[in-house]
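Title: Prediction job returns without error message
Component: structure pipeline
Severity: low
Priority: P3
Assignee: unassigned

Description:
Job completed but the reporter wants confirmation the result is attached to the right record. Sequence as submitted:
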Amino acid sequence: MRVVPCESFMIELPRRLPDVVEALREQIQRPIGFVRRWPRRHKLFSGRADASGFTLKLIARGRGGFVPVIRGRFEEQGGATLVRVRIAMSALEICYLVALYCFAGLMVYRLSLRGELSWPWALVFGGLALFGLLVTWLSFRQDANVARRNLEATLGAAGSGRDTPVEEGN
């Protein structure tokens, strides 16, 4: 079982590779500079896309949560294009969560050893940490589903091709 949530899937499109790359580039917001304010009518994604693959981030529209990193590569098969996509958390989010849970676990462990925190209360705090992991996983899953729907709509895959989930580790 993976602790860090991610999602992998494939999209088969009946269009040629240059058309797919161009459709994706149309929805990528060009960099604005140091200030991270987006125009009122901005595009769906920020990142890059070329003939070999893409790395995108969904632009959060004024709401909190995770910003999933969408990585994919293109494979041409005759007149069709196969897109292999992986949606995962960014490295910064993973580092933050690891540091947060290590610090909280260490504090509960040290307080329990000193006798300042009884073992039932240590179990309560451990349960809260597990509940926090569950909330983290569910909120990432929601943001990953939004990113997947937007990517499929951008590529025009809604009903036009095969959409099959890929097993983890492939």
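Comment from assignee: result matches the submitted record. The beta strands are 6-13, 28-29, 45-49, 53-58, 69-77, 80-88, 163-165.
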